[in-house]
Amino acid sequence: MGKNVKLDDPETIRERVRSGYAKVALGTSGSCCGAASSSSGSGCCGAAAPEQLARDLGYDEAELAVLPEGSNMGLSCGNPAAIAALKPGETVLDLGSGGGFDVFVAGRRVGEKGRAIGIDMTPEMLGKARKNIISYTKNTGFANVEFRLGEIEHLPVADASVDVVISNCVLNLSPDKPQVWRDIARVLRPGGRAAISDIALVQPLPESLVHSIAALVGCVAGAVEIRETERLIREAGLETVEIVRKPEAIAAMTDGNDPLFREVLAALPAGSTLTDYVTSVAITARKPV
Protein backbone atom coordinates (compact mmCIF):
# COMPACT_ATOMS: atom_id res chain seq x y z
CA MET A 1 0.00 0.00 0.00
CA GLY A 2 2.87 2.38 0.63
CA LYS A 3 4.46 2.08 -2.78
CA ASN A 4 4.46 5.20 -4.93
CA VAL A 5 2.68 4.60 -8.23
CA LYS A 6 1.19 6.89 -10.82
CA LEU A 7 -2.55 6.99 -10.19
CA ASP A 8 -4.26 8.33 -13.30
CA ASP A 9 -6.91 5.64 -13.79
CA PRO A 10 -10.15 6.15 -11.82
CA GLU A 11 -10.82 2.44 -11.44
CA THR A 12 -7.30 1.85 -10.10
CA ILE A 13 -7.89 4.56 -7.50
CA ARG A 14 -11.26 3.13 -6.49
CA GLU A 15 -9.87 -0.37 -6.15
CA ARG A 16 -6.92 0.79 -4.04
CA VAL A 17 -9.23 2.76 -1.75
CA ARG A 18 -11.76 -0.09 -1.57
CA SER A 19 -8.99 -2.54 -0.69
CA GLY A 20 -7.57 -0.26 2.01
CA TYR A 21 -10.91 0.27 3.72
CA ALA A 22 -11.84 -3.39 3.44
CA LYS A 23 -8.78 -4.14 5.57
CA VAL A 24 -9.95 -1.58 8.12
CA ALA A 25 -13.41 -3.18 8.26
CA LEU A 26 -11.94 -6.66 8.70
CA GLY A 27 -9.54 -5.53 11.42
CA THR A 28 -6.40 -6.38 9.46
CA SER A 29 -5.45 -2.68 9.34
CA GLY A 30 -5.67 -0.38 12.32
CA SER A 31 -6.20 2.76 10.29
CA CYS A 32 -7.20 4.20 6.94
CA CYS A 33 -3.54 4.72 6.26
CA GLY A 34 -2.55 1.11 6.25
CA ALA A 35 -1.19 -1.84 8.08
CA ALA A 36 -1.17 -1.02 11.77
CA SER A 37 -2.28 -3.88 13.99
CA SER A 38 -5.96 -3.85 14.88
CA SER A 39 -4.97 -4.35 18.49
CA SER A 40 -3.26 -0.99 18.56
CA GLY A 41 -6.53 0.87 18.92
CA SER A 42 -5.46 3.44 16.36
CA GLY A 43 -7.88 5.17 14.05
CA CYS A 44 -7.63 7.15 10.85
CA CYS A 45 -4.07 8.24 10.19
CA GLY A 46 -2.87 7.05 13.57
CA ALA A 47 -5.29 8.69 16.01
CA ALA A 48 -4.67 7.34 19.49
CA ALA A 49 -8.21 5.94 19.81
CA PRO A 50 -11.45 6.38 17.85
CA GLU A 51 -13.31 7.54 20.97
CA GLN A 52 -10.76 10.23 21.77
CA LEU A 53 -10.69 11.42 18.17
CA ALA A 54 -14.49 11.74 18.19
CA ARG A 55 -14.34 13.79 21.39
CA ASP A 56 -11.64 16.02 19.92
CA LEU A 57 -13.86 16.60 16.88
CA GLY A 58 -16.78 17.68 19.04
CA TYR A 59 -19.05 14.64 19.10
CA ASP A 60 -21.46 14.58 22.03
CA GLU A 61 -20.51 12.22 24.85
CA ALA A 62 -24.11 11.07 25.30
CA GLU A 63 -24.33 10.13 21.61
CA LEU A 64 -21.02 8.28 21.70
CA ALA A 65 -22.12 6.28 24.75
CA VAL A 66 -25.03 4.63 22.93
CA LEU A 67 -23.43 4.03 19.53
CA PRO A 68 -23.16 0.39 18.40
CA GLU A 69 -19.83 -1.12 19.36
CA GLY A 70 -17.31 -0.92 16.54
CA SER A 71 -19.22 1.62 14.44
CA ASN A 72 -16.69 4.33 15.30
CA MET A 73 -13.44 3.29 13.66
CA GLY A 74 -11.67 6.64 13.91
CA LEU A 75 -12.14 7.52 10.22
CA SER A 76 -13.40 11.05 10.87
CA CYS A 77 -11.87 14.44 10.06
CA GLY A 78 -14.84 16.47 11.30
CA ASN A 79 -18.39 16.33 12.63
CA PRO A 80 -20.85 16.68 9.72
CA ALA A 81 -23.98 15.93 11.72
CA ALA A 82 -23.22 18.93 13.92
CA ILE A 83 -22.72 21.39 11.06
CA ALA A 84 -25.83 20.00 9.34
CA ALA A 85 -28.10 21.15 12.20
CA LEU A 86 -30.31 18.11 11.63
CA LYS A 87 -34.01 18.36 12.48
CA PRO A 88 -36.53 15.67 13.48
CA GLY A 89 -38.23 14.11 10.49
CA GLU A 90 -35.51 14.85 7.93
CA THR A 91 -34.02 12.32 5.51
CA VAL A 92 -30.21 12.27 5.68
CA LEU A 93 -27.78 10.62 3.26
CA ASP A 94 -24.21 9.82 4.36
CA LEU A 95 -21.65 9.35 1.58
CA GLY A 96 -18.99 6.77 2.43
CA SER A 97 -20.72 5.62 5.60
CA GLY A 98 -18.17 2.99 6.67
CA GLY A 99 -19.24 1.16 9.82
CA GLY A 100 -22.24 3.44 10.19
CA PHE A 101 -20.88 5.93 12.73
CA ASP A 102 -22.38 9.14 11.32
CA VAL A 103 -25.53 7.38 10.12
CA PHE A 104 -26.27 6.25 13.66
CA VAL A 105 -25.53 9.73 15.01
CA ALA A 106 -27.81 11.27 12.37
CA GLY A 107 -30.54 8.67 12.94
CA ARG A 108 -30.87 9.65 16.60
CA ARG A 109 -31.10 13.32 15.67
CA VAL A 110 -33.79 12.96 12.99
CA GLY A 111 -35.83 10.64 15.21
CA GLU A 112 -38.36 7.93 14.48
CA LYS A 113 -40.09 9.95 11.74
CA GLY A 114 -36.79 10.73 10.00
CA ARG A 115 -34.47 8.50 8.01
CA ALA A 116 -30.69 8.07 7.76
CA ILE A 117 -29.22 6.26 4.74
CA GLY A 118 -25.59 5.26 4.36
CA ILE A 119 -23.83 4.62 1.04
CA ASP A 120 -20.52 2.75 0.82
CA MET A 121 -18.67 1.00 -2.01
CA THR A 122 -16.86 -1.47 0.27
CA PRO A 123 -18.88 -4.64 0.95
CA GLU A 124 -16.92 -5.35 4.12
CA MET A 125 -17.85 -1.94 5.54
CA LEU A 126 -21.46 -2.42 4.50
CA GLY A 127 -21.64 -5.78 6.28
CA LYS A 128 -20.19 -4.27 9.44
CA ALA A 129 -22.69 -1.39 9.38
CA ARG A 130 -25.69 -3.63 8.78
CA LYS A 131 -24.76 -5.85 11.71
CA ASN A 132 -24.73 -2.73 13.89
CA ILE A 133 -28.36 -1.91 13.08
CA ILE A 134 -29.63 -4.41 15.67
CA SER A 135 -27.72 -2.73 18.47
CA TYR A 136 -28.73 0.74 17.25
CA THR A 137 -32.44 -0.16 17.23
CA LYS A 138 -32.16 -1.71 20.68
CA ASN A 139 -30.49 1.42 22.07
CA THR A 140 -32.80 3.96 20.45
CA GLY A 141 -36.06 2.20 19.65
CA PHE A 142 -35.80 3.61 16.09
CA ALA A 143 -36.03 1.57 12.89
CA ASN A 144 -34.90 4.47 10.70
CA VAL A 145 -31.49 3.57 9.26
CA GLU A 146 -30.36 1.59 6.22
CA PHE A 147 -27.17 0.98 4.25
CA ARG A 148 -26.81 0.64 0.48
CA LEU A 149 -23.90 -0.54 -1.65
CA GLY A 150 -22.84 2.07 -4.18
CA GLU A 151 -20.29 4.63 -5.33
CA ILE A 152 -20.61 8.25 -4.28
CA GLU A 153 -20.31 9.36 -7.90
CA HIS A 154 -23.46 7.42 -8.79
CA LEU A 155 -25.68 7.35 -5.72
CA PRO A 156 -28.36 4.65 -5.53
CA VAL A 157 -30.89 7.27 -4.45
CA ALA A 158 -33.82 8.90 -6.28
CA ASP A 159 -33.73 12.47 -7.56
CA ALA A 160 -34.77 15.18 -5.07
CA SER A 161 -35.39 12.64 -2.30
CA VAL A 162 -33.19 13.74 0.64
CA ASP A 163 -33.10 16.83 2.84
CA VAL A 164 -29.45 16.67 3.86
CA VAL A 165 -26.29 15.08 2.44
CA ILE A 166 -23.45 14.55 4.89
CA SER A 167 -20.00 12.97 4.51
CA ASN A 168 -16.94 12.59 6.68
CA CYS A 169 -13.44 12.48 5.17
CA VAL A 170 -14.57 10.68 1.99
CA LEU A 171 -15.10 13.08 -0.93
CA ASN A 172 -11.35 13.72 -1.23
CA LEU A 173 -10.88 10.04 -2.09
CA SER A 174 -13.04 10.20 -5.22
CA PRO A 175 -11.30 10.25 -8.62
CA ASP A 176 -14.27 12.22 -10.08
CA LYS A 177 -15.14 14.99 -7.66
CA PRO A 178 -17.19 17.06 -10.16
CA GLN A 179 -19.53 14.06 -10.58
CA VAL A 180 -19.80 13.63 -6.80
CA TRP A 181 -21.04 17.20 -6.41
CA ARG A 182 -23.40 16.87 -9.38
CA ASP A 183 -24.95 13.78 -7.82
CA ILE A 184 -25.23 15.51 -4.44
CA ALA A 185 -27.18 18.27 -6.18
CA ARG A 186 -29.34 15.69 -7.98
CA VAL A 187 -30.49 13.84 -4.84
CA LEU A 188 -31.15 16.94 -2.74
CA ARG A 189 -34.65 18.31 -2.56
CA PRO A 190 -35.06 22.00 -3.50
CA GLY A 191 -33.82 23.92 -0.47
CA GLY A 192 -31.92 20.86 0.74
CA ARG A 193 -28.41 21.23 2.07
CA ALA A 194 -25.01 19.57 2.08
CA ALA A 195 -22.86 19.44 5.23
CA ILE A 196 -19.49 17.88 4.50
CA SER A 197 -16.39 17.36 6.61
CA ASP A 198 -13.43 16.75 4.35
CA ILE A 199 -9.74 17.26 3.68
CA ALA A 200 -8.59 20.13 1.45
CA LEU A 201 -5.22 21.45 0.34
CA VAL A 202 -3.84 24.76 1.54
CA GLN A 203 -1.19 24.57 -1.18
CA PRO A 204 -0.17 21.91 -3.73
CA LEU A 205 1.35 18.75 -2.29
CA PRO A 206 5.00 17.85 -2.85
CA GLU A 207 5.38 15.61 -5.90
CA SER A 208 6.58 12.83 -3.59
CA LEU A 209 3.08 12.60 -2.11
CA VAL A 210 0.89 13.19 -5.13
CA HIS A 211 1.00 9.57 -6.32
CA SER A 212 1.46 7.85 -2.97
CA ILE A 213 -1.01 5.06 -2.23
CA ALA A 214 -0.46 5.49 1.50
CA ALA A 215 -1.27 9.18 1.25
CA LEU A 216 -4.31 8.55 -0.93
CA VAL A 217 -5.93 6.03 1.41
CA GLY A 218 -4.91 8.26 4.30
CA CYS A 219 -7.05 11.08 2.91
CA VAL A 220 -4.22 13.32 1.71
CA ALA A 221 -3.19 12.83 -1.91
CA GLY A 222 -6.75 12.84 -3.21
CA ALA A 223 -7.55 16.28 -1.81
CA VAL A 224 -7.86 19.43 -3.92
CA GLU A 225 -7.36 23.08 -3.01
CA ILE A 226 -10.14 24.93 -1.21
CA ARG A 227 -10.85 27.27 -4.11
CA GLU A 228 -11.18 24.28 -6.44
CA THR A 229 -13.68 22.67 -4.05
CA GLU A 230 -15.79 25.82 -4.02
CA ARG A 231 -15.72 26.00 -7.82
CA LEU A 232 -16.93 22.40 -8.13
CA ILE A 233 -19.78 23.00 -5.69
CA ARG A 234 -21.03 26.09 -7.51
CA GLU A 235 -20.73 24.46 -10.93
CA ALA A 236 -22.90 21.61 -9.65
CA GLY A 237 -25.65 24.15 -9.04
CA LEU A 238 -25.44 24.60 -5.28
CA GLU A 239 -25.33 28.02 -3.62
CA THR A 240 -24.75 29.69 -0.24
CA VAL A 241 -21.39 27.92 -0.15
CA GLU A 242 -19.30 28.26 3.00
CA ILE A 243 -15.98 26.51 3.61
CA VAL A 244 -14.47 26.87 7.09
CA ARG A 245 -10.94 25.64 7.80
CA LYS A 246 -10.50 23.30 10.77
CA PRO A 247 -6.71 22.79 11.03
CA GLU A 248 -7.04 21.57 14.62
CA ALA A 249 -8.75 18.45 13.29
CA ILE A 250 -5.56 17.49 11.45
CA ALA A 251 -3.66 17.53 14.74
CA ALA A 252 -6.31 15.30 16.33
CA MET A 253 -6.22 12.87 13.39
CA THR A 254 -2.46 12.53 13.31
CA ASP A 255 -1.83 12.07 17.03
CA GLY A 256 -0.48 8.56 16.69
CA ASN A 257 2.15 6.17 15.39
CA ASP A 258 0.70 4.57 12.27
CA PRO A 259 3.57 3.23 10.10
CA LEU A 260 2.17 4.41 6.79
CA PHE A 261 1.31 7.80 8.20
CA ARG A 262 4.98 8.06 9.19
CA GLU A 263 5.72 7.34 5.54
CA VAL A 264 3.57 10.31 4.51
CA LEU A 265 5.38 12.58 6.98
CA ALA A 266 8.76 11.36 5.77
CA ALA A 267 7.88 12.46 2.22
CA LEU A 268 7.32 16.08 3.27
CA PRO A 269 10.04 18.67 2.66
CA ALA A 270 12.42 19.18 5.59
CA GLY A 271 11.09 21.57 8.20
CA SER A 272 7.46 21.37 7.06
CA THR A 273 4.42 19.77 8.68
CA LEU A 274 1.27 18.27 7.21
CA THR A 275 -0.76 21.32 8.23
CA ASP A 276 1.40 23.45 5.94
CA TYR A 277 -0.32 21.62 3.08
CA VAL A 278 -3.56 20.13 4.38
CA THR A 279 -6.51 21.27 6.46
CA SER A 280 -9.79 19.76 7.49
CA VAL A 281 -12.76 21.80 6.25
CA ALA A 282 -16.42 22.12 7.17
CA ILE A 283 -18.36 22.65 3.94
CA THR A 284 -21.97 23.77 3.78
CA ALA A 285 -24.04 24.52 0.69
CA ARG A 286 -27.69 24.59 -0.33
CA LYS A 287 -29.73 23.60 -3.36
CA PRO A 288 -31.77 26.50 -4.73
CA VAL A 289 -35.50 26.39 -4.08
Strand content: 15-25%
Residue-averaged pLDDT, rounded? 82
* Oligomeric state as shown: single chain
CATH hierarchy, class: Alpha Beta
The name of the CATH architecture is: 3-Layer(aba) Sandwich
Would you identify the CATH H-level superfamily? Vaccinia Virus protein VP39
Q: Provide a count of the helices.
A: 12
**What is the percent of helical residues?**
25-40%
Order of strands, main sheet, comes to 3-2-1-4-5-7-6
Terminal-residue CA separation: 44 Å
Largest sheet: 7 strands, mixed
Question: How are helices and strands ordered from N to C?
Answer: HHHHEHEHEEHEHHHEHHE
- Helix/strand/pairing category: alpha/beta
The total count of strands amounts to 7
Describe what you observe in this structure.
There is one protein chain. The chain has 289 residues and is of the alpha/beta class. It has one domain (10-286): Rossmann fold, CATH 3.40.50. It contains twelve helices and seven strands. The chain has helices spanning 10-26, 50-56, 61-65, 80-84, 101-110, 123-140, 177-187, 207-210, 213-217, 226-235, 247-253, 259-266; strands at 91-95, 115-120, 145-149, 162-168, 188-201, 239-246, 278-286. Strands 3-2-1-4-5-7-6 form a seven-stranded mixed sheet, with helices on both faces. Helix 1 (10-26) crosses helix 6 (123-140). The protein is globular. Residues 1-5 and 30-48 have low confidence and may be disordered.
